[in-house]
Design a protein that fits this description.
Elements: E1 5-14, E2 17-27, E3 32-36, H1 43-50, E4 58-63, E5 66-67, H2 75-79, E6 81-84, H3 96-103, H4 110-123, H5 125-129, H6 140-152, E7 158-162, H7 170-185, E8 189-193, H8 197-203, E9 206-211, E10 214-220, H9 221-226, H10 228-234
Parallel strand pairs: 3-8, 3-9, 6-7, 7-8
Antiparallel strand pairs: 1-2, 1-4, 4-5, 9-10
Helix pairs in contact: 3-6
This protein binds adenosine-5'-triphosphate.
Adenosine-5'-triphosphate (ATP) binds near residues 17, 19, 37, 40 and 43.
Length: about 240
């Protein structure tokens, strides 16, 4: 079976800065894959390239067996490739519920959209309580929930999460990762970029390690957690 996502020799440059220097990465349907690495390694750039926000300088991205190169930026969500960006990007002056509705803008099946809002509220009871509150007045953890919930509203085939734990208190980080596990259990395929490498690898099936624009290691999450070099460099052990 073809992988859901197949990245081949991807290169990305910002002017003269080579942020991604020819990476291969694939994800099978139903997998949760972590991408870890230091600041500036090129992880966010990889995610942005996957949703068309940044154009590759070389290589190929196949999604569901088809190249994404010709997709227009607004086509990605409709195809099921959805990014929850670092810093969340929610609409602060809309309510929680309006934010979730925005996530379904590519759809016009009203009854199903209402069902999916209920499904998001069952994943995030906290958001249900706050459905009429302006999203900009929520706590950081609640805003991250809105961002993930909004992405779920587009029924993603591949959900890309960029640093979901960023800036959150440890207890809230645990909560967000519980939700990531619940979403994975529903069968949503995910690529998770995280500074918190330990938690990411404890949650993921497989992991890739990125250093200075290159993938230097790819293995099962269990093997990466047990790898001494990884422990020293990324797991604070
Ligand atoms: P972080 O966790 O800090 O976001 P990262 O692994 O996601 O790190 P990227 O954000 O992808 O790394 O950055 C990779 C490299 O590309 C860095 O050297 C960064 O300075 C550079 N870079 C990122 N965005 C731009 C941009 N818009 N213009 C120029 N250079 C950029």
């Amino acid at each position: 079976m073809n992988p859901l996502l197949d990245i081949k020799d991807l290169k990305v440059a910002y002017g003269g800065i080579h942020a991604v220097k020819g990476i291969d990465l694939n994800i099978n349907k139903g997998e949760l894959v972590a991408l870890i690495g230091a600041n500036g390694a090129g992880k966010s750039t990889t995610l942005k390239t996957l949703v068309g926000m940044v154009k590759p300088a070389g290589g190929e991205i196949l999604f569901d067996g088809k190249p994404t190169a010709r997709l227009a930026p607004y086509d990605y969500v409709g195809k099921g490739l959805v990014l929850v960006p670092e810093g969340r990007g929610i609409f602060g002056r809309l309510t929680v519920e309006e934010n979730l509705q925005m996530g379904a803008y590519v759809r016009n099946d009203k009854a199903d959209i209402a069902n999916d809002i209920d499904r998001v509220f069952s994943l995030f009871p906290r958001l249900k309580e706050r459905r009429s509150q302006l999203a900009g007045t929520l706590s950081g953890g609640e805003q991250q929930m809105v961002a993930i919930g909004r992405a779920m509203m587009s029924r993603p085939k591949l959900l890309l999460l960029d640093e979901p734990s960023m800036g959150l208190a440890p207890i809230i980080v645990q909560k967000i990762f519980e939700i990531i596990r619940m979403i994975a259990a529903e069968g949503v395929t995910m690529l998770l970029v995280e500074q918190n490498a330990k938690l990411a690898l404890q949650t993921a099936d497989r992991g890739y390690v990125m250093e200075s624009g290159r993938i230097t290691l790819a293995d099962s999450a269990a093997n990466l957690l047990a790898n001494e070099k990884i422990q020293q460099a990324y797991l604070g052990e």
